[in-house]
């Protein structure tokens, strides 16, 4: 059973990101403030849930949250500032776009940078411990998946509708055959045996 709050603050914001280990597309973060009386037996870390359950939970979270926000940081910025900084930037952008100012921030993982003067805590595996982080993980994942499905239409040979940009065998085989696209992260090791591309 996931806990509702980590702190005594009413406006506690959970934040998480999706797509950090991908070869293509953005890293996407969400920030969610849930009411203190929020309950949901299905809600868990997005990685533990099926796509169907994530899809069903998305509108419940969006309707019942006190506020939520989602932010993409795209591959050009990832290549410029690196994936860790891009992940934190996406979380900061999501928090900054909330309609309420949180009193406390809980972050999935162990790396974060202060956001203004708001106190925060990083929590390893926080998405399987706290409802607001789990909710953020689901919104980040579903919004990012929807974006990857949309760019799949442009480059169907990479099968982003299935792999969502992660380094699957099929994705790497397509990179080997067709080269890279404007959506690929050029600073990532896209193929194990290849470090440079002729652009």
Poorly predicted ranges: none
Helical content class: 25-40%
Number of helices: 6
Report the top-level CATH class: Alpha Beta
What is the SS-derived class?
alpha/beta
Would you mind describing this structure in some detail?
- The chain has one domain (about 10-150): Ribonuclease H-like superfamily/Ribonuclease H (Nucleotidyltransferase, domain 5, 2-Layer Sandwich).
- The chain has 6 helices and 5 strands, in the order ββαβααββααα.
- The protein has helices at about 50-65, 75-80, 85-95, 130-150, 160-165, 170-180; strands at about 10-20, 25-35, 65-75, 105-110, 120-125.
- It is globular.
- About 40% of the residues are buried.
- The model has no long low-confidence stretch (mean pLDDT about 95).
- It catalyses: Endonucleolytic cleavage to 5'-phosphomonoester.
- Its EC number is 3.1.26.4.
- InterPro entries: RNase_HII (IPR022898), RNase_HII/HIII (IPR001352), RNase_HII/HIII_dom (IPR024567), RNaseH-like_sf (IPR012337), RNaseH_sf (IPR036397).
Salient structural properties:
RNaseH-like_sf; hydrolase; nuclease; 199 residues; Nucleotidyltransferase, domain 5; RNA-DNA hybrid ribonuclease activity; 6 helices; manganese; alpha/beta
